[in-house]
Design brief:
Radius of gyration: 17 Å
Strand content: 15-25%
CATH topology: Rossmann fold
Bound molecules: NADP nicotinamide-adenine-dinucleotide phosphate
CATH architecture: 3-Layer(aba) Sandwich
Shape: globular
Number of domains: 1
Structural class: alpha/beta
Oligomer: single chain
Helix content: 40-55%
CATH class: Alpha Beta
Number of helices: 9
CATH superfamily: NAD(P)-binding Rossmann-like Domain
């Protein structure tokens, strides 16, 4: 298995993105970290380069909904690090309300950030990977992509199902080439997003276990992975099969 030395992570200023950055830094990888909160990125970069003096950590301010900037920032990271070996499309938003209850703006913002901006990130990453004829694209989807979700998860789940289908399609497109594409579907992992959800997060994994599990799944370069695998892999089979009336009570 190729060691992916230069790794770009979007949404690296907190939660899963930050947790992955810490683990890849400890494994000696160079990092390109972006998000809107650059103060947090700069603090993280300073800490990581002090702890792991052999690595390079580049940072940039990026709002993934500014699509032109996504292309510019990815290309400038590639120039700075001499190429990119892995891009993790992780930036995401957990906003959303039941459809038809007056929250179109929040639902649209969720879909734009998690799906349209994910498309921009995949386009920018794949341009670089096609030029290099190498690279690993990782899309952070969600367990909520497995089937239509009720309540405040409807738009979020739809955006994540779209992101998963996007990654799966790109994987089919580059099948047989040196480019790899992975879709990761986290269950609930402690982060700013889960703490904002008002406590209704069953089976939540701690941030450390979640990040360990994500990095393990990504390093394996499997096509699709539920993380942590327990209990989310068996639950994915069960929840897909349940009648909708039972399903809506459980999620
Ligand atoms: N935690 C879970 O249980 C869970 C489960 C399934 C999937 N996920 C997915 O995992 C990813 C990370 O979420 P998290 O749980 O770590 O949440 P989080 O702590 O809220 O982190 C979200 C990250 O995305 C960035 N972000 C949000 N909107 C952005 C924008 N417009 N432009 C650039 N960056 C943006 C944030 O950075 P700035 O605010 O600094 O820009 C932050 O770094 C998301 O895609 C989420 O959907 C999480």
């Amino acid at each position: 298995m190729t060691t992916r030395k230069r790794i770009l992570i979007t949404g690296a200023s907190s939660g899963l993105g930050e947790g992955m950055a810490r683990r890849f830094a400890a494994a000696g990888r160079d990092l390109a970290l972006c998000a809107r909160r650059t103060d947090r990125l700069d603090t993280l970069a300073a800490e990581l380069t002090e702890r792991h003096p052999g690595i390079r950590v580049a940072t940039a301010c990026l709002d993934v909904n500014a699509h032109d900037d996504v292309f510019t920032v990815f290309r400038s990271f590639a120039d700075e690090l001499g190429g990119l070996d892995r891009v993790i499309v992780n930036a995401g938003l957990g906003k959303g309300q039941p459809i038809g209850t007056g929250y179109f703006a929040a639902n649209r913002q969720t879909v734009e950030t998690n799906l349209v901006a994910a498309l921009a990130q995949c386009e920018a990453a794949m341009e670089l990977f096609r030029e290099q004829n190498a690279g690993h694209l990782v899309v952070v989807s969600s367990f909520s992509a497995i089937r239509g979700m009720p309540r405040n998860m409807t738009a979020y789940g739809a955006s994540k199902a779209g992101a998963a289908a996007l990654a799966d399609g790109i994987r089919a497109d580059v099948h047989g080439t040196p480019i790899r594409v992975s879709t990761v579907l986290p269950g609930f992992i402690e982060s700013e997003m889960t703490s904002r959800s008002g406590g209704r997060t069953p089976l939540v994994a701690g941030a450390d276990r979640g990040a360990d599990s994500l990095v393990k799944a990504i390093e394996s370069e499997r096509g699709t992975a539920y993380v942590p695998p327990w209990p989310w892999t068996p639950l994915s089979v069960l929840l897909k099969a349940l009648p909708v009336g039972v399903f809506r009570k459980l999620v």
